[in-house]
Amino acid sequence: MHIFIQNHFIRGHGLKANFSDLPDILQDKPMFILGNGEMYRNQTEVKMSQIVLPCHANYCGELSAGQLLKWMDSTACLSAERHAGCSCITASVDDIHFETTIGVGQVVNITAKVNRAFTSSMEVGISVSCEDLFSDRQWKVCHAFATFVARRTEAGKVQLKQVIPRTQAEQMEYSLAAERRRMRLIHAEIINDLLSSCSSQTVSECLDYQDAVPAERTRVESVELVLPPHANHQVSTFGGQIMAWMENVATISASRLCNAHPTLRSIDMFHFRGPSHIGDRLVLKAIVNNAFKKSMEVGVCAEAYQGGEPLRHINTAFMTFEVLDNDRKPCTLPRIRPEPVDGKRRFQEAIARKKIRLDRKYIISCKQSEVPLSVPWDPSNQMYLSYNNVSALKMLAARSNWVLTSEKNKVSLYTLEENQMLCFKVETHVAVAAEQVFLLLSDLRRRKAWDHHYKECEVITDSHEDDTIYRVVTPSVTKGGKVQDFILLASRRRPCDSGDPYLIALRSVTLPAYPPTEDYNRGEVLCAGFSIWEEENSFTKISYYNQATPGVLPYISTDIAGLSSSFYCTFASCSAFLEENKDNLASLPTSTL
Question: What positions does the domain START occupy (predicted)?
Fold first, then answer.
């Protein structure tokens, strides 16, 4: 059952110390039966259920996005504090895409749990669904990932205990959390690179439109006095409250452009730059940066001050709004006339952020089955393709329902059929240190020394220190037929901590400079790569994964059918190659080392 007494704990993040002492029936955490028959509950999971009342709704009778953000932040903070055992503060929130709105009388169900803990920070996954009590329907509203930091105690900086994933879903999120953390750390760098390299769109075109709305008309400035009800149990301004105030002024700004009721569709990743406290005057500023055909970007800034002190930057966020017609379809929006100097800069930057938004939404957020085999690569989306490449391999490796097909001399072949897709895994052990294995397998040009499927391999570009694009030529799959070539992105990752493997992820990309030619059949790889686990005494487990596509399946089909054991010969050759070259790393390219 969902209990509403949780609301008393969540409001202001209070009484969290007693929450873990409630009986299991009151904690309402789902129970799983593990493979060994053990009953398991995730101890960091926290739920909140709220009926949407008129006081929570906006002028359209729908749940205010600001109110939802407050509930999400509250639930996530309680989950973080349950794991940390001390007070926690919101450090950042990843992109949030709102898939639907929620009406008065419907129930909001929010679930939060810690996916992974690092030194003093942790990632909390948040899922939001809506429930109609009269039709018994439920549907997804949004999901998000927030980063919380354990607050320093009198004893000093808090060292968080590690999360131990127990289910397949937890193992997957645990593994992906390390990759998402990497993306957060380079988020600002990605934006700056794109802003510096993006082509300048002519702002003068907007100045020529007679019906363009001056950006100055959409400017909003509002001040809020932080009172005790706005603070958490640490006497700091509640992060969810700041987000709600920011959403409020952004909505007003968007309304001034379109003279209608806008709907918030997404919020870009943002970071809290500093704390705010009771007694602060919080100054909130918003303006429409750019209006696209069916959506607009609103920039919001929150600053704080007390007395005569200078303003302190608390947060900046970018929110995307749409205006929906009676059929819930986006309407065409008026054009915006940017202000001189800063307005033009914001106008151009909004275009760059829209490109980033599309990359993040359609490369990162979509399901693996929805990603096309070959994705166009360019410098602006290289980080997101790298993320997707590694994440896909981690998701494949986290599957627990692999079936052993054959085994020979400690080389094992496993298969997995799911969603009309055949995947295979080859696993073996070598007496070579994991880092040496990683370095030797990272350079695909050396693979032809042990894999007869690799006839030629050349580096096309070193797009990043962790990413290289190769062109690989493989034999024909039919006698007398054309040979195949692949354009592969290889993404390398070292362990985030001692419990992680080394990873080498492979997937196909497209490059305008390397189109398919008549002399070759262009093959494609959706997901493949190596997971390299360090074991005792310089002993390493190597797992090779491949989500078989039509271009790959002919090379392995006879092994899967039990008519051949060429996989054994290939990986026996790989083991011999690693043994022979483990002390010869000096010859590797510097980009690999």
Answer: 402-571
Q: In the chain, what are the helix, strand and coil shares in percent, each to the nearest 5? A: 30, 35, 35
Question: Taking Cα atoms as reference points, which of 532, 508, 492, 500 lies closest to residue 390?
Answer: 492
CA distance 210 to 303: 35
Nearest in space to 190 (alpha carbons), one of 438, 463, 567: 463
Collapsed DSSP state (helix, strand, coil) of residue 32: strand
Does residue 345 come out as left (phi exceeding 0), alpha (psi in the -120 to 50 range) or beta? alpha
Q: Which of 402, 352, 363 is nearest to 385 (CA)?
A: 363
529: left (phi over 0), alpha (psi -120 to 50) or beta: left
Tens of pLDDT, residues 29-80: 566 666 666 777 899 999 999 999 999 998 889 999 999 999 999 999 999 9
DSSP letter for each residue of 254-322: HHHHHTS--EEEEE--EEB-S--BTTPEEEEEEEEEEE-SS-EEEEEEEEEE-TTPPPEEEEEEEEEEE
Q: How much is the pTM?
A: 0.81
With contact defined as beta carbons under 8 Å apart, do 177 and 171 qualify? Answer: no
Beta bridge partners of 399: none
Q: Which two tokens stand for residue 412?
A: 């094992």
Say if strands 540-547 and 46-51 run parallel, antiparallel, or are unpaired: unpaired
Structure-block tokens of residue 187: 């988020």
Burial of 238 (0-12, 13-18, 19+ CB in 10 A): buried
